[in-house]
Write a structure and sequence with these properties.
By secondary structure, this protein is mainly alpha-helical. The protein contains 11 helices and no strands. Helix content is 77%, strand content 0%.
Length: 233
């Protein structure tokens, strides 16, 4: 389970370093760094989304998941959690909640989180999560230099999310086929792309990425149903 603990530790260390750098970076450099990070996040999202060949699954997942997430108002809940943490831990820091939400979404969404946690739970193999830890550590430095300490506290949902998957790995593994993991990754990568677009601040209104989170789970239902219907016809 080394990787399960290494990932949040890397985020905390990177976030602390980013916070130390925050005060010494001029606003124009912060803006440029933020745009550069947004472009990097978009590339990660695009490359992951293109790996699937089941485009219909991705479309259905995003539409159904978005409707479900809007009904559940997931993003409002995440935002309230970030605001609560800000009120308790970092009063007056307007970037705290945004940093917590953006970092939590970015670090949780994606194939490496799922696959790495499964490997840790089934084989006690930390390789994927150690690689993810290095990437997340770098991203947390850049994010924290822009948003502040909210990024550090994103380590908590990362630990719970990946730790939960690792603990349930024995139950989940038989159902997570290569095709399903690919489609889960594609949907998650689209959400990562949306995070990058939001960071560019080029739209009139933000994409409510948090409300799209249920989309990641829809392929777990879509693929078995599609196979069953295919068998009927």
């Amino acid at each position: 389970m080394l990787g399960i603990w290494a990932n949040p530790a890397a985020i905390v260390l990177g976030g602390l370093l980013g916070c130390l750098l925050r005060g010494g970076i001029q606003e124009k450099y912060k803006a440029t760094i933020n745009y550069g990070l947004a472009l990097c996040v978009m590339i990660i999202g695009i490359s992951g989304a293109l790996k699937t060949q089941n485009t219909l699954c991705v479309i259905v997942s995003v539409i159904v998941g978005s409707v479900l997430g809007e009904w559940l108002r997931i993003e409002d809940g995440i935002g309230r959690l970030g605001d609560w943490a800000q009120s308790k831990l970092s009063k007056g820091d307007t970037g705290f909640s945004a940093g917590f939400v953006n970092a939590s979404l970015l670090f949780c969404v994606g194939a490496m989180a799922v696959v790495g946690a499964l490997e840790a739970g089934l084989q006690n193999k930390p390789d994927t999560l150690m690689a993810k830890s290095a990437l997340d550590g770098v991203f947390s430095i850049i994010l924290a230099s822009t948003y502040g300490p909210g990024v550090i506290f994103s380590a908590v949902p990362i630990l719970l999310y990946q730790g939960g998957i690792a603990l349930l790995a024995g139950v989940l593994a038989p159902f997570l086929t290569d095709a399903l993991i690919t489609d889960l990754s594609a949907v998650g990568s689209l959400l990562i792309l949306a995070i990058g677009i939001n960071s560019l601040d080029c739209l009139k209104s933000r994409i409510r990425v948090g409300n799209m989170l249920p989309a990641i789970l829809i392929p777990c239902v879509y693929l078995p149903v599609a196979q069953w219907l295919g068998g009927l016809f």
